């Protein structure tokens, strides 16, 4: 199942190390089958709530590949070029398959909630 690395980065001052990171990061994806899905920069259309910063999403074939990329010497070497200058959060999560059904997920959650309430 596809896994996603999602970064919500706050904007910082332009810095040569950030430019170097951007020039090198995509090359670290190749051995692990990663590819950009979203790469910040554009101003998002905010429908609800507030938003600051940039969003970056990278897709990997699976969780093992995403973890291997993040832990790779190639990525660990360049990571400080970003983290020294762009504060933010980075998460890793599994996507859902093509047969995912939100209503079925809600039904399972509802059943667990009802069982927990009955046990109280």
Automatic annotation (TrEMBL):
Pfam families hit by this protein: DUF1330
Domain DUF1330: 2-96
Protein name: Uncharacterized conserved protein, DUF1330 family
Organism this protein belongs to: Goodfellowiella coeruleoviolacea
Lineage: Bacteria, Bacillati, Actinomycetota, Actinomycetes, Pseudonocardiales
